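Entry 14. Ran structure prediction on the chain below.
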Amino acid sequence: MNTTAFSMNTPVAAIVIVYSLLLALASLITAIRNRSMGMILLVGFAVLEVAVLVQAGIMIAAVVGGQGPAEKGTLYGYLAGQAVIPPAGVFLALAERSRWGPAILAVAGFAIAVMTGRLLQIWQGLP
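Output, structure tokens:
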């Protein structure tokens, strides 16, 4: 494994983790305040989706370049799962116009942070 490619991915992963946790917190506050999802959360999760796709592109390019873990199936599974979570969360939050819509987004944001951390572990070859 080339550590240069790994170090190039670490800042993107850190941005995704911090940003998704901030969105999860904002969504949780919105849910606690008994509000439905607003445009700010919608745009925030759209930006999160772009960040997740950029991260996936970087990781796929590194794998094509010969870096990454020996087990690629798990890596690709996590990347695909991550790409689905923000749009699915927004879709469900739009369908649920009560306080539970933002609660769904809080779970989605937290899930992205956890999955990104797990992607870094997979990349390093940790079980």
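Residues 36 and 97 are 5 Å apart (CA to CA). Will compare against last week's run tomorrow.
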